[in-house]
Amino acid sequence: MRLVVLGGGESGVGTAILGKKKGYDVFVSDFGKIKENYREVLSNNGIAWEDEKHTEALIMNADVVMKSPGIPDKAPIVKKLKDATIPVISEIEFAAPFTEAITIGITGSNGKTTTTLLTYHLLKQANLNVGLAGNIGKSFAWQVAENKHDVYVLELSSFQLDGISTYKPHIAIITNISPDHLDRYNYDYNLYIDAKFRITMNQTASDYLIIDADDEAISNWLQKHTIKATTIPFSLTKQLDFGGSVDANNMNINLNQDIFTMPIHQLALEGKHNVKNAMAATTVAQLMKIRKETIRESLTNFQGAEHRLEKVLKIQNVQYINDSKATNVNATFFALDSMTTPTVWIVGGVDKGNDYDELMPLVREKVRGIICLGVDNKKLVEKFENVVEVLVETTSMNEAVKIANKIAEKGDTVLLSPACASFDLFENYEDRGRQFKQAVQNL
């Protein structure tokens, strides 16, 4: 069997290693440049590879192709493979049959990284032999090749779910759905929603789907489609007899009279959206029969995700917060919503078809000044220049932070929450977040 891997990054190299171990004839092809450390791994494992090109003769003879999530379906080589009816699958689909482990799959437009890390933390603190993979950490296929874990917590993007046909998680979470990556779905929101729900398409009655009952897109989809899994809702607005809800001070989760309750103020993570993330992760922990004492302790000592509402420093009584991972409007909505002081907001980058209208009430209420950080800020300027006292355009992080420092007054917050992708000025959102932290430290 010939396995061709498109993309020589983390998921590609992991898949190649697993494929080789399982006796496939493996070839890795990357249209960009493969990083030095990955080249070394491939060569050390005797795996053939090429970069900066796709040689069709070496690709079109594949029995199966694993496509890295970053490569769009409209890439010419992917179109050719599909026309030739050669199966093109994701790393998750390729690796899943080679492990007996239970998998917990987590998707959503926002909150999925925090929920994934929190779920992993809860299971790890309970001494389960648990791995963390998917869109985060070491690739799932690589860990399966090393036969590492009994349970995996997988953060799954819509692109990874596009490439599954038989994979099913035992427990799935959809944290929420809001418009994102629409450029990859022909600007059709419904196609993107359908992609998220692929997480449950192979689930059976003995599996679980945990969902946000307050989310309009999720509720609408469920009204029109039937699913087999046991659905467990959570909500901040409704009292549920089954699932997660809140009263005045507590978060409560009721699974058929197995009730977990905890004061919200004890949660390590702040903000309403994080109560939801905690409800989702706690539901998993209960399904996995973890002691309530352990769950409580883990929820109080969890350290959040880097680049997600991460407090950097307080300088002259101004708090600097790095929310570089907010690459869409909905994520930035959560960030602005959780601000309790006047805010200087750093925003901008590569706009994925954003509609900024939903931010307008929050900007009017909370934002003192806006610093646009991007190559093309026209849309932001037109939308907000008459709404805030100060709006400045910049193209460097150092400059943005220096200007923020000038605009901010004692007791304010400076918030980097870009609502956009980072590729115009930075390598990725992590690079953007690190540059922000460095610039703040240099003040």
Automatic annotation (TrEMBL):
GO terms for molecular function: UDP-N-acetylmuramoylalanine-D-glutamate ligase activity. InterPro entries: Mur-like_cat_sf, Mur_ligase_C, Mur_ligase_C_dom_sf, Mur_ligase_cen, MurD. Keywords: ATP-binding, Cell cycle, Cell division, Cell shape, Cell wall biogenesis/degradation, Cytoplasm, Ligase, Nucleotide-binding, Peptidoglycan synthesis. It catalyses: UDP-N-acetyl-alpha-D-muramoyl-L-alanine + D-glutamate + ATP = UDP-N-acetyl-alpha-D-muramoyl-L-alanyl-D-glutamate + ADP + phosphate + H(+). Transmembrane segments: none annotated. Coiled coil: none annotated. Its main location: cytoplasm. Residues 106-285 form the Mur ligase central domain. It is an enzyme of class 6 (ligase). Signal peptide: none annotated. HAMAP family: MurD (MF_00639). Belongs to the MurCDEF family. This is UDP-N-acetylmuramoylalanine--D-glutamate ligase. It comes from Flavobacterium nakdongensis. The gene is murD.
